[in-house]
Amino acid sequence: MAEFPAVPLTVEGSAVLHQVFSFDWKTWRSTPFAERAQILAEAVSLFRELEGESASPRSALFSVIGHKGDLMTVHFRDSMESLNEIELKLAQTKLHDFLEAKYSYLSVVELGLYESSMKTYASLAEQGIEPHTPAWNEAIQEVLKRQKDAMSQRLYPSIPPAKYLCFYPMDRKREPGANWYTLPMQERQRLMHDHGMIGRRYGDRVRQVISGSIGLDDWEWGVDLFADDPVVFKQLIYEMRFDETSALYASFGQFFIGLRVQLDEMENWFQSKSASR
Questions:
Q1: pLDDT, tens digit, for every residue of 192-221?
Q2: What is the tally of structural domains in the chain?
Q3: CATH number of 96's domain
Q4: Which residue in the list 103, 114, 121, 168 is annotated as catalytic?
Q5: 77 is in which domain, residue-wise?
Q6: DSSP for 66-132, written as a single string
Q7: Is 168 an active-site residue?
Q8: First-to-last C-alpha distance (Å) of the chain
Q9: 229-253 pLDDT, tens per residue?
Q10: How far apart are CA 266 and CA 277, in angstroms?
Q11: Which H or E run includes 234?
Q12: Which one, of 217, 229, 251, lies nearest residue 17 by Cα?
């Protein structure tokens, strides 16, 4: 298998943007009530537009729990241009005067195709087709198109209606003795299969969206976990710590926990009341 490409095939879907802001509560409290009402009405109107169809929202607002920020927005869109348009629209609102950007993360929904890669590479080798030749490239594109069509719903998801969000970025290690990128394809496939089986056991309680960010942001992947019970985040991630893939080859960034702010409850948040109970 050594002659096969080391890179597994992937299919990509929605562009994803996470934004974390702190909110200037002191200035907000000193703002006249009538002006605050206008600012809030404008903000609600914008987020209603961004969320789109209520049955399949592609934007959502979360109240960040902890000191890392106050508000987090999450956007799934079909292009980077659309994400940039969202940033500009928010920047033009009066609400933006009270926001300070603390963190952002840019990525693209990604599905890895380790198993399909192995089968495809082996099939092409049996046909005597050399890697990266025109015939090879054409066959690869056909496989990617089929996979993308079959996985369309997963590649272009709406934001689940769950109460809580856990978001974190992560890398695969590149260290002496623990370098993910020097492992043989078969070994990486095995590790990812075993790793994925843990996630499947939580499928009835957690919705997971993996997005790739190599070349787009400071980490390699972003992970979004949506659930109604935040304790399940701890249970899932703790169990995965004992999995060989995470134990040997994973590095993690900051974790952000958000509580969903529904549009009809935004006023409560700006009155320092908790999001939906």
A1: 999 999 999 999 999 999 999 999 999 999
A2: 1
A3: 3.30.70.1030
A4: 168
A5: 15-108
A6: STT-SEEEEEEESSHHHHHHHHHHHHTSGGGGGEEEEEEEEEEEEEEEHHHHHHHHHHHHHTTPPTT
A7: yes
A8: 54
A9: 999 999 999 999 999 999 999 999 9
A10: 13
A11: helix 231-241
A12: 217
